[in-house]
Amino acid sequence: MSFPPLPPLNRRAAAAAALLTLLAAAGAPPLQAATPKDTLVVAAAFDDIITLDPAEAFEISAGEVMGNAYDRLLRFDVSDPSKLVGDLAKSWSVSADGKTFSFELKPGLKFASGNALTAEDVVWSLQRAVLLDKTPAFILTQFGFAKDNVRERIKQTGALTLTLTTDKVFAPSFVLNCLTANVAAVVDKKLVLSKEANGDMGYGWLKTAYAGSGPLKIREWRANEVVAMERNDNYWGPKPALARVLYRHLKEPATQRLLLEKGDVDIARNLGPQDLQALSVHKEVKTTATAKGTLYYFSLNQKNATLAKPEVREAFKWLVDYQAIGDTIMKNIGVVHQNFLPAGMLGASSAKPYKLDVDKAKALLAKAGFPNGFKVTMDTRSVQPITAIAEAMQQSLKRGGIELELIPGDGKQTLTKYRARQHDIYIGTWGADYWDPHTNADTFARNPDNGDDAKSKPLAWRNAWAIPELTRQSDAAVLERDANKRKAMYDEIQAEFRRSSPFVMLFQQIEVAAFRNNVEGLQLGPTSDSTYLFKVTKR
Amino acid sequence: MRRLRAAASFAAVIAVTYLGLLAVTFFIGRVVPIDPVIAIAGDRAPEHVVQRVRAELGLDLPRYQQFWRYLQKVSAGDFGTSVLTSRPVLQDLLRAFPATLELATAGILIGAGLGVPLGVWAAVRRGGWVDQAVRVLGLAGYSVPVFWLGLMALVVFYAKLGWVAGPGRIDVTYEYTLTPVTGLLLLDTAWAGEWEAFRNALSHLALPAALLGAFSMAYISRMTRSFMLAELAQEYVVAARAKGLSEARIVWRHALRNAMVPLVTVIALSYAGLLEGSVLTETVFAWPGLGQYITNSLQNADMNAVLGGTLVVGTVFVGLNLLSDGLYRWLDPRTRAR
Q: Looking at the structure, do residues A398 and A418 belong to the same domain, yes or no?
């Protein structure tokens, strides 16, 4: 066999190579890998944002943007969340009968637009949230505000004063805590109404726009690309040192890490345990961590006759190796937590009665009539650390004779099944909606109607856990005006919950952010809306 | 008259293609076990809000009625609003598609520009070291996960060597100095005479484009090689040699020209594949393109966005097929209408 001689390709190849080198050279200037001094660039995955209207926004990333861009009557103290501080409110008081809350605003407040901020705006914003009735509206409507009464119950009483009247006598801390939520943020009535279409109270417009008074104003949100915020020069308080804060959407943790190491971003928000481990030796990068209100748990559907047996429920709690998972998979990103109130919240308990105890679990299973165990499925979101925890559970459950089959799925897919009560076991997370114990008691320990077409469908309902007594106790706790008594009530509810619930509480999430060492004042808040980037400075 | 009939039948084929595409996507989208309400109302919404959103989306209607409503809207040029971005789908697509177009075009230029000569070379020197190298390269290009390769490329060329810029389309410094005209950053920056921004955009584009280029090069060079081997075994090549033509002329003018006919289809399909947007590359390089947009929409059952994206991909395929048909006619005189 003979081959024809090589055609004169070499010359062309050389030319092509030269061209490529040239291109590469053109694209490779001495890259200045540093962000501008007055601009904070944050790498984050924020594909959960679907709206910028505080009356509707309820997603984690949106919450953070709202916290920086909108003011509300009150905020809680980030270093001690049980303490409230006035934001727009100068002072507040509760009437003797415990139903009327009065507020007086600070004088001379202004929106970013330049419009004056008065009690009229505050009242209208709260009414608007109730009238629009979007997802987070329940935080306000649980006090009895409804479409037909909100105009009387949330009332302006002077240029800078207003009152809120609740339908029952609630624990004052509960009402005030709820007013720190984003849904109670104040929007610029004049500006929003000028954009109104078909009586929508500016809803169509505000989804992608901004009308607030916070320390940073939102310049632009491009879904899955960028959220751009700028200093609001009309802000009432100390103005941010930064001129701009830019969130860049970077879905991949490894990419976030590269950009941070290189200095192309100042803060990386979604790093995994390995990334954090690797960065711990990096000289120009530091980390900060905060325990969040988010809990990892798995739950047993009580519609499944096997899982409904009390001994089986308890056996599951003895068949998880909390310590081992905590030391490996959840290292730096979670701590073992076996209660439904996260540490840091009023009434939180640190009781941790459960550990891996195979013999105890086996005895319980035998008592329930399953000496040889059984097979069961768990819907598992294909995302870390959920998958890793699920696999670890698979191992320890097997030692007790329970064969766990994992059904992997996308987040929305497993959630759809869970919400329809079609799962056996579901593993997931739950974050506090606002900083008050009722938020979690309401969902974990309250199930007013276990029927298929119930009006409210809390987590207890999703697992078909009928609990009239706990529901009654939770309802009572929210009305208790004495903070110490209220705390004791939650203690009692949680003790029963630990003992008999179909929920196996696993970990409390720790959020970690890594940042360049020229960044100062970064503190992650316990809730999504209390990470205040406007307090950050850069050297 | 005949021409008119041809045009009409062509239009009918296109219409049926689109209708089929939409119908299949729509009904698959509706049987996917994901509740679209969750994306809008969130996991925490009270039951009455969930029911209201369901009604607003028209999800309480029978499926065929939902589809009919969608078709009516689309034919009026209204692609609906994406529930994830709260913006009209058309506006979203006009932003995502140019990003993908820029990347895919750069990728296919590299892929075809290197793949074809390499394939020819490998065919001519069959069994030689070039052939072996191309084979290994092709295999590697096909079997190494793009995700891993992308990250490694970033580690080496961006983090360690600093030859190229990192993920994203342009540095934040230029983010707000540019007015988008075409959405293609290279064109926009060049048009505005912003050469520094142009260099920056190019530097961001280089790595992902090279990566996509390497992948399509792997495929194109393999196909070129086999087409060329077939052509070089033809009698006309023997005849040309007997005539005393130079080897270069035989390879490049005669054999390659004939191999180009099937090759055009291969290149066009590779290009179309790149234009769908490659999710993994886009994710690693934080490239806000079509692949990420469609995938994210799909995972949230954001059907308006998915259907809009499907239409774009469909249009790309129809368009590139037309183009390669046209090129066929130009390359192969036998297919020209008499």
A: yes
Question: CB–CB of A533/A519 below 8 Å?
Answer: no
Q: What is the ipTM of this complex?
A: 0.83
Cβ of B159 under 8 Å from any chain A Cβ?
yes
Q: Each residue of A331-383: pLDDT tens digit?
A: 889 999 999 999 988 899 999 999 999 999 999 999 999 999 999 999 998 88
| Half-sphere CA count of A195, side-chain side, radius 13 A | 15
Shortest CB distance from A457 goes to which of B47, B120, B286? B47
Q: Is A297 within the bounds of a domain? A: yes
In this complex, which of A27, A36, A415 lies closest to B173 when CB atoms are compared?
A36
Amino acid found at B186: L
Task: Tell which of A213, A241, A260 closes a domain.
Answer: A213
Give the closest residue to A518 by CA, choosing from A118, A38, A167, A25. A38
In chain B, what residues touch A16 (CB-CB under 8 Å)?
113-114, 117
pLDDT digits (tens, 9 = 90+) for A380-438: 988 889 999 999 999 999 999 999 999 998 777 888 899 899 999 999 999 888 889 99
Per cent of chain A over pLDDT 90 is 76
A258 touches chain B (CB under 8 A): yes
Q: A457 vs B95: CB contact, 8 Å cut-off? A: no
A439 DSSP β-pair partners: none
Which member of B48, B113, B296 has the closest CB to residue A47?
A: B296
Task: Say whether pLDDT at A463 is over 90.
Answer: yes
Q: CATH code at A256?
A: 3.40.190.10
- Do A176 and A260 belong together in one domain? no
Residue B153 contacts A, CB cutoff 8 Å: no
Residue B18: pLDDT band (50, 70, 90) is: confident
CATH number of domain containing A431:
3.10.105.10
Q: Which residues pair with A223 in a beta bridge?
A: none
Question: Does the pTM of the predicted model rise above 0.90?
Answer: no
Same domain, A86 and A133: yes
Q: Quick one: CA dihedral B196, B201, B203, B206, positive or negative? A: negative
Instruction: Determine the Cα angle at A448 with ends A445 and A449, to 5°.
Output: 125
- The domain made up of B94-335 has a fold known as MetI-like fold (1.10.3720)
Strand partners, A231: A216
Single out the residue in A169, A184, A213 at which a domain terminates: A213
Q: Which two tokens stand for residue A141?
A: 């409507």
Bridge partners (DSSP) of residue A89 are A105
**Tens digits of residue pLDDT in B246-282:** 888 888 888 888 888 889 989 998 999 888 877 888 8
Q: If we measure between CA atoms, which residue out of A214, A198, A72 comes closest to residue A129?
A: A72
- A186 and A94 co-located in one domain: yes
Shared domain check, A313 and A268: no
Q: Is A418 part of a structural domain of the chain?
A: yes
Residues A389 and A312 in one domain: yes
| Same domain assignment for residues A346 and A226 | no
> What would the pLDDT profile of B58-67 be if each residue is shown by its tens digit?
888 888 888 8
End-to-end CA distance of chain B: 16
Cα separation of B37 and B60, whole Å?
Answer: 12
Task: Tell me the chain A residues in contact with residue B224 when contact means C-beta distances shorter than 8 Å.
Answer: none
C-beta of residue B57 within 8 angstroms of C-beta of residue B41: no
Residues A375 and A521 in one domain: no
Give the range of the structural domain holding residue A168, as residue numbers without chain letter: 47-213
Burial (CB count <10 Å: 0-12, 13-18, 19+), residue B4: exposed
User: Positive or negative CA dihedral for A72, A73, A77, A83?
Assistant: negative
| Cβ neighbours, 10 Å, residue A101 | 22
Decide if A6 is inside a domain: no
Inter-CA distances, A75 with A78, A82, A90, A453, B105, Å: 9, 10, 12, 37, 51
In chain B, where the domains are located: 2-75, 94-335
Q: What is the pLDDT of residues A254-273, one digit of tens each?
A: 899 999 999 999 999 999 88
